[in-house]
Write a structure and sequence with these properties.
Blueprint (H helix, E strand, L loop, with lengths): L4 H16 L4 H27 L6 H18 L4 H20 L8 H20 L1 H4 L12 E2 L2 E2 L3 H23 L1 H11 L1 H6 L4 H27 L9 H14 L5 H10 L2 H4 L7 H15 L3 H12 L2
Antiparallel strand pairs: 1-2
Helix pairs in contact: 1-7, 2-7, 2-8, 2-10, 2-11, 2-12, 3-4, 3-5, 3-10, 4-10, 7-8, 8-10, 11-12, 11-14, 11-15, 12-15
Length: 309
């Protein structure tokens, strides 16, 4: 399995950056958020880029995992490291069960169905305050402990960097495997894939479960890193932002979601004076990418390079 120089360079940069921003907590925090979005975007790319389905319920699955994690810790008094896999698997299975009816759909119809599920779950986060504290949200969330010491700041960013790199590695492995090739075959022509003996629905379920694991695990670490969550943290705009990182960088590539996240995830923090226009800026970017650069930055570069060989 040959590793491309760009992939190796990005991996090295992701692992080194926490050391460079160790003493700058503002930039360090932005870096941590970027790592979380890299992990999320890499996961969404497996379904959106490789299989060709746009999962707009992605953020809702993250929310289920985050709320479940906090509930298990607060009510059942489970240690974070034991509650983490339980919450992740719980949210992933819930995500698959909710998304199962839509996995027979494709294109716009799948996207619309996932949008309805996302909206419904966002309302559930608001109207079940016993578990979520409603619109008020849950604050003062404690960071995880490691041998009795809280993981925070620079140490947390190192952990998120490792998580992002592992997430990219898993995505690369999936893409290079027979499973990944079946995903691509389904994306290109699901009818032809079915005629060749590929079970389209089963493979979509597998892809959706893998993506749900990314969403859920990222949601758990998001809650403990930020220290505050609310329904707004996991609404449809959050799903669209993650999709935007994938589309902007280049879907169906390994490096694209990483590039898109690095370029776009820090912007809301670096341009705080434009906070009121954040949603408008996201909408404009979505329109521009769709019209002018449907392959994203890295995808467009690969197309140009192949055309000029």
């Amino acid at each position: 399995m040959k590793i491309k120089p760009l992939h190796a360079l990005l991996t090295l940069a992701l692992l080194v950056l926490p050391f460079l921003f160790k003493d700058n907590r503002f930039l360090g925090f932005i870096l941590g958020i970027t790592y979380l979005n890299i992990f999320w975007a890499t996961g969404m790319n497996i379904l959106y880029g490789f299989v060709g389905l746009m999962p707009l319920m992605f953020a809702a699955i993250s929310g289920i995992a985050a709320y479940a994690l906090l509930y298990f810790i607060a009510e059942w008094h489970i240690n974070f490291w034991f509650a983490l896999p339980v919450a992740t698997l719980f949210a992933s299975f819930i995500g698959v069960l909710l998304g199962l009816p839509s996995l027979r759909l494709k294109g716009f119809y799948f996207t619309l169905c996932s949008l309805i599920i996302q909206s419904t779950l966002t309302l559930a986060f608001i109207f079940f305050p016993k578990f979520t504290n409603g619109d008020t949200g849950i604050n003062q969330i404690s960071p995880p402990l490691w041998f009795g010491e809280p993981i925070k700041g620079y140490a947390f960013e190192c952990m998120l960097a490792l998580m992002a790199v592992v997430g990219i590695g898993v995505s690369y492995f999936v893409y290079q495997s027979n499973l990944g090739q079946r995903f691509v075959a389904i994306r290109e022509d699901d009818v032809l894939a079915e005629s060749l003996g590929i079970n389209v629905v089963i493979n979509r379920v597998v892809a959706f479960f893998i993506v749900s694991l990314y969403a859920a695990l990222g949601g758990c670490f998001y809650a403990t890193y930020i220290g505050f969550i609310s329904p707004r943290s996991f609404d449809v705009l959050s799903s669209l932002n993650i999709w935007l990182f994938v589309a902007f960088g280049g879907k169906a590539t390994i490096a694209g979601p990483v590039i898109g996240s690095i370029l776009l995830a820090p912007l809301p923090f670096l341009l705080q004076s434009l906070e009121a226009y954040k949603d408008i800026l996201s909408g404009v970017l979505i329109v521009l990418i769709t019209l002018l650069m449907p392959g994203g930055i890295y995808g467009t570069y690969l197309a140009w390079r192949n055309a000029n060989k």
